[in-house]
Amino acid sequence: MKVKIVDVAKEANVSVATVSRVVNNIPLVNEETKERVLEAIKKTGYKPNAIARSLKIQRTNTLGIMIPDISNPLYTEMARGVEDICGIYNYNIILSNTDFSPDKEKESLDVLIEKQCDGIIYIGKDLTDEFQEILKNAPSEIVLGNVMDERGDLSSVLIDNESAAYDLAKRAIEKGHKNFALFTDRDGGFTSDKILKGVKKALNEADLSLDEELIIPGNINVKGGYAMMNKLLDSGKDVDIAMTMNDQVALGAIRAAEERGVKVPDDLAVTGFNDYWLSEWVNPEITTVKLPMYDIGAIAARMLIKMCEADEKESKTITCPYEIVERQSM
Amino acid sequence: MKVKIVDVAKEANVSVATVSRVVNNIPLVNEETKERVLEAIKKTGYKPNAIARSLKIQRTNTLGIMIPDISNPLYTEMARGVEDICGIYNYNIILSNTDFSPDKEKESLDVLIEKQCDGIIYIGKDLTDEFQEILKNAPSEIVLGNVMDERGDLSSVLIDNESAAYDLAKRAIEKGHKNFALFTDRDGGFTSDKILKGVKKALNEADLSLDEELIIPGNINVKGGYAMMNKLLDSGKDVDIAMTMNDQVALGAIRAAEERGVKVPDDLAVTGFNDYWLSEWVNPEITTVKLPMYDIGAIAARMLIKMCEADEKESKTITCPYEIVERQSM
DNA sequence: CTGAAAGCGCTTACAG
DNA sequence: CTGAAAGCGCTTACAG
């Protein structure tokens, strides 16, 4: 049988109220009594029941985190950031994979709410109007991680993907590249849209244009990159740079190019997006833009905890900095 | 104000008991009454409070997962496996990073117990006798993931690392390799020990011996691999194969070798361990042994849930299969 | 088929 | 400084 507060109280010859006070470090307890209780706790091996406590105080000290796929390195760093901050503030996290599925997202959210998470971090590649509405009406506090709320009444921490893509494209133009191909996400989404926009802007400013046929959609992973590069090369078009939406896509793309005897970067430059640890260990090293995924998670978590603890109800948007990392692939 | 069961009861003109019954799908409710309640639930937007429910029924339907570092690809797959099974059985998971720190492990475990996790999956690189004892006495059900309980009274799902290393070494010997170097984990641990043992066994059987000076300890990541290879090459010893403890180490090692003009595999073979997705996208592709990390997580979760739901108290050990994957680096 | 009531293990005003 | 008691939101024997 698990030992509960009343067992400790008996052992120490005090009331449960007193035990509760020492467990929660409420000061107005006599030192001697406190000692006695502490001893009883040790002796009985008492561990407070956080569920009972939560029910009473109406807070769980847990954050829910909705994430498309924890095993996707894009998200895993964010999760780690959330975790670390939670550790500091004594929160726990309930993890929920949503697999980019709207249905799973709804289910996940319901469960997280039912489990009374004080706050929820929503991470996804996009935010539909419908889900935005659902989140807005959720009883828990909400922060969006790397997703923009176009309507602007939810808090979020993000990256200016458009401007990052713009900077990277501009750098490419400065290096003399003129004929761009762009490998986009076949499923669309916020990030993909912004990157496309940023690249187009840079090209426009340089009086260059993007051949719409060279906007090649595909899966956002190595295999996808491999396939998109093959498609590009099959097109026979004159291209001197392929920009991708992440480093893994770039890796696959480079591989496909080299298999066909196209040298990167000499014959064709390739860029990644969202620096990944492996990108500097690969040959050629991938030129990319480094996004602070860990920080996004950490900042989102800190913000959310603040929201849970204060009654700070205004929604904020924090934009994190990025950094162009020039290596070898461009 | 959140709506609770009593609000629904009022709305539907029934007792809370009846509402509870329809929420929990207990059959003995009149169809009409049920309809009325369902409508009231919809109208009020009622969501059951899982915390209150848990307190009453003494089960939380949540599993705790202790994991050294979620952002380490070695563990992230296991977490995904756990997650997926939990999704099927309607469990949630509370995630806890332990960073290989015994203190954090103890803290984590306490918190998971206090939050009344029905079961806990312990993942780590080692299990000390002290912690084994603590786990054994925990009130929650416990399953070990990829950690062996030498004393054998805890359930676990693991991989026969020794035999995997043995097989890989044997394959190397068959290919004519004679002078082995081994890059081990500077922090020791179960996996490292077993691999060492397996390699030695294979060498012994072939009347070869392992030069103790060529057992090089280091950090288990790319940089560590890079450093260990440099150390190996600095030694000036005659070596024709370096076996590592994971693919990332192998990647770093290969890089270091090539920077010094040592061609892999022609001048020196390198093997990884625990196949990682990138290993076949890298040049040279890494020869390794594929360990079913996802399955370990999934099997551990299923086992744990069974233990939580039945009163199946015998401890079991499940050993998962592995597979040698020959690619280019050996 | 339905409801009144006890109880899950805590916390916290309130009274002393 | 300490304790008795109410109550957090549910579930579930028990009685009808």
Characterization of this structure:
The structure is a homodimer of 330-residue chains. Chain A has 330 residues and is α/β, with parallel strands linked by helices. Chain A folds into three domains: 5-57, 434 Repressor (Amino-terminal Domain) (Orthogonal Bundle), CATH 1.10.260; 62-159 and 293-322, Response regulator (Rossmann fold, 3-Layer(aba) Sandwich), CATH 3.40.50; 161-290, Rossmann fold (3-Layer(aba) Sandwich), CATH 3.40.50.2300. Chain A has twelve helices and twelve strands. In chain A, the strands form three sheets. Chain A has a six-stranded parallel sheet, sandwiched between helices. In chain A, strands 7-6-8-9 form a four-stranded parallel sheet, covered by helices on one side. In chain A, strand 3, helix 7 (129-136) and strand 4 (141-145) form a beta-alpha-beta unit. Chain A is elongated. Chains A and B meet through helix 4, helix 5, strand 2, helix 6 and helix 11 of A and helix 4, helix 5, strand 2, helix 6 and helix 11 of B. Strand 2 (92-97) of chain A pairs antiparallel with strand 2 (92-97) of chain B, so a sheet runs across the interface. The structure holds a DNA duplex (16 and 16 nucleotides).
